C-alpha cells in the first residue's frame, strides 16, 4: 500500500510510519517539523517538509497518488489550547479541512485520524466506551470533536472513508528501540518523570494527592505507542477492505495512578525522583480509563505492551541515551 503519513515525524507519527515500513508498505511522510524531528525520519521512507496550512504543498504531495493517508498533524497541549484557541483552530481545524479537501480532489480512498479521549470531557462513567457523551472541557478536545464531525460529512457526501482513533494517554517508545527522538518541553506525566530521572528537571509536581482514588493521585489509561501504531495499520486495512468507516477507543483498559508510574520509574531507572505535591490542575478528572472492546471485536486488536513496566522500560531506555 502507498500511504501518506501527515505528521509522521512526530512522536506517534514516527511509530506509525515504522509499523507501516515493517509491514512493507510504501511510506511518504509530510511534516512541518514544528514538533517533529528529523531524527524520527527513516531511511526507507520519503520525507517532504511541508505545512498543512499550505494547500499547494498538500496538493502537490497528493498528486503522487496514495491509497490512504494517516493524519496525525496537530497541536495537543490541552492547557495551551485554552489560552491560544486561535492557534488550535487554525492548525487543527483549518489544517484538517485542507487535508480532507485535497484527499477528495486526489481520490484518496481512506483516512485514519488521530482523535482523542479529550473529546469525551469529564467522565460520566468508567470505563469509557465510544457511546459516552462527547462534551470536551478543553479547546484541544473540541478541535478533535469538530474534525470527527467533518469526517462524517465527507464520508456521507464524498465517500471518503475514515477510521477515527480515540487515543487515551499515549506512552512508551518503540519496543525494538528504533525511535529515539524526544519531545521538546513536554508537559505530560511520563516525559516529565523521565526528565526528572535523567536530571534535566529538578522535581516532578504532582497535581493533587487528594483525589478519590486508591492512592489519592490521578488515574489514567496509558497506551503503549507501539500498540497504537499497530492499531493504525489494522484500522487502515479494515476500512480499505470493508469500505466502512469506524470510530474506536484505543486504551489499555486499565487505570494507573501517578504514584504507580513514579514507583515504576524509580525501579527501572534506579534514580531518585523528587516530587512536590501541588494543587490540582484545572480540568483534570480523578479517574479516566477506556474500554477498547470495540477495537478488539472489530479489528482483532489488543494492547500487548501497555503494562506499566513495558511503558517505563522502553521510555527510560531512550532517555538514558540522551543523558
Ligand atoms: C492530556 C490532555 C489530553 C491529551 C493528552 C495527550 C489535559 C486535561 N488532558 O491528558 O487532552 O489528549 O494529554 O497529550 O490536559 N500529572 C502530574 N504532574 C505532571 C503532569 C501530569 O501530576 O507534571 C498528572 C495529571 O494530573 C494526570 C496524569 O498525571 O493525573 C496524566 O497527565 P498528562 O500526562 O498531562 O495527561 P492527561 O492530562 O491525562
What is the name of the CATH superfamily of the largest domain? NAD(P)-binding Rossmann-like Domain
Cofactors, ions and other ligands in the entry: uridine-diphosphate-N-acetylglucosamine
Give the terminus-to-terminus CA distance.
Answer: 38 Å
Could you name the CATH topology of the largest domain?
Rossmann fold
CATH level 1 name of the largest domain: Alpha Beta
Read across the widest sheet, the strand sequence of neighbours is: 3-2-1-4-5-6-11
Number of H/I helices? 10
The structural domain count equals: 2
As a percent range, the share of strand residues is 15-25%
Radius of gyration: 19 Å
Low-confidence stretches: none
- Total beta strands: 13
Range of helix content: 25-40%
Spell the H/E element sequence.
Answer: EHEEHEHHEHEEHEEEHEEHEHH
Class of secondary structure makeup: alpha/beta
What is the overall silhouette? globular
Q: Give the name of the CATH architecture of the largest domain.
A: 3-Layer(aba) Sandwich
What characterizes the major β-sheet? 7 strands, parallel
Provide the residue-averaged pLDDT: 97
List keywords for this structure.
two-stranded parallel ribbon, 39% helix, single chain, binds uridine-diphosphate-N-acetylglucosamine, alpha/beta, 323 residues, globular, 10 helices, 2 domains, UDP-galactose 4-epimerase, domain 1
